[in-house]
Automatic annotation (TrEMBL):
Organism: Kangiella geojedonensis
Protein name listed in UniProt: Triosephosphate isomerase
E.C. no: 5.3.1.1
Gene: tpiA
Keywords: Cytoplasm, Gluconeogenesis, Glycolysis, Isomerase
Family recorded in the similarity comment: Belongs to the triosephosphate isomerase family.
Protein location: Cytoplasm
A GO molecular-function annotation: triose-phosphate isomerase activity
Xref: CDD domains: TIM
């Protein structure tokens, strides 16, 4: 929940100026919903994709304040975050609700970015993968048939965000991040090797230009879900350049 018209215009233009037509990595920005339309206008004729930060699991109706997948799609968004740690912790979104949102996003032609991750207490208790598997399994279980669930999961993106490393300045070491990313991929490979190999798994825990090189060099880290560093065009572009 950052920004205004002036700052968003400055940020998007700052990013756009430094992207050329030969840019290889995927670049996605997810502004507050009020500014999606403006961001899409600013991002025209560039490599920047635009997404939402959240969506409702409902189709439409008496859900004051909610934003539907159709609304996001109507504005021109093509991605949406689901299950961000702040949605889970501050707004009590359960694994089951996040799974509903993931399914609704796909139904509406949006690419869902499924955020998963553990708290500090869960990491210290040694239950990181138990927590992460539960968050992934909720999506698979939503479709009842796991084969279908895995196919659907493969149409989205996974973002591993250790809750203890978000906005704290504390970053998981490259080895810690890689270990969890590898475990996620290994878990998926026990059910569908193709999905495991193809799905993008992003790291989202205080990634910035200073540490992006080491993190993105890890075999199973396919990109970053950038927080505070995305509010500065030069810092964000520096990470993009490291990604290649």
């Amino acid at each position: 929940m950052h920004g205004n018209l002036a700052s968003i215009e400055s940020l998007v233009n700052g990013i756009k100026r430094q992207l050329d037509s030969n840019w290889q990595s995927d670049v996605l920005v997810c502004p507050p919903s009020l500014y999606i339309d403006k961001t899409i206008q600013l991002a025209q004729d560039s490599k920047i994709s635009v997404g939402g930060q959240n969506l409702s699991e409902q189709e439409q109706g008496a859900f004051t304040g909610e934003i539907s997948g159709d609304m996001l799609k109507d504005l021109g968004a093509n991605y949406v975050l689901v299950g961000h740690s702040e949605r889970r912790s501050l707004y009590n979104e359960s694994n089951a609700l996040v799974a509903e949102k993931f399914a609704k996003a796909l139904e509406k032609g949006l690419v869902p970015v499924l955020c998963v991750g553990e708290t500090l207490e869960q990491r210290e208790n040694g239950t990181t993968m138990e927590v992460v598997k539960g968050q992934i399994d909720a999506v698979l279980d939503f479709y009842q048939d796991k084969t279908t669930g895995l196919e659907k999961l493969g149409q989205g993106v996974i973002a591993y965000e250790p809750v203890w490393a978000i906005g704290t300045g504390v970053t998981a070491s490259p080895e810690q991040a890689q270990e969890t990313h590898a475990e996620i991929r290994r878990y998926l490979s026990t059910m569908n090797q193709s999905v495991a190999e193809k799905v993008q798994i992003l790291y989202g825990g205080s990634m910035k230009a200073a540490n992006a090189g080491e993190l993105l060099a890890q075999k199973d880290i396919d990109g970053g879900l950038i927080g505070g560093a995305s509010l500065k065009a030069d810092e964000f572009i520096a990470i993009c350049k490291i990604a290649g």
